[in-house]
Amino acid sequence: MRLITLLMFAFVSLATWAQKDIVSALTEKKAGEGTVVIHQDLRLNALLQEGINTTLNSDGERVAKTAGFRVQVYAGNNSRQARSEANLMATRVRTSFPELQVYTHFVNPRWLCQVGDFRSIEEADVVMRKLKATGDFKEVSIVRAQINIPY
Fold this sequence. Notes:
- The chain is an alpha+beta fold.
- It has 2 domains: 2-39, no CATH class; 54-150, Alpha-Beta Plaits (2-Layer Sandwich), CATH 3.30.70.1070.
- The protein has 5 helices and 5 strands; from the N terminus they run αααββαββαβ.
- Strands 1, 2, 3, 4 and 5 form a 5-stranded antiparallel β-sheet that branches.
- Strand 1 (53-56) and strand 2 form a beta hairpin.
- The model is unreliable at 14-19 (pLDDT under 50).
């Protein structure tokens, strides 16, 4: 009887521990124990958080979607001319900064061209200043957006 009770207690304890994410369990402060500091890639944090959507991007890579920032280089109206101008801005960004992701899309009622997937506003600010310094982009601003984190 004691063995069955002990096994049931161990099973319940294990199930309860498994419900926490591993980072929370490791960094939890407990009296009389040391402190654990974890340095890891932000993409791993995004995957461990609840509520992160994962999808495939246009290149077929798996990405996690989360809240972040992008640099907006163009916002036009819903005309054909605005669409071509948004695509022109995207081409300019790709030639000047090939390492950045460029997103051209229609959000009713206008065409947008946005650059990058930044977790912090500071990262976005660095890129925004570089884009402004070229002189090719007049309407440069930082916007909140749903960003893609490849993994």
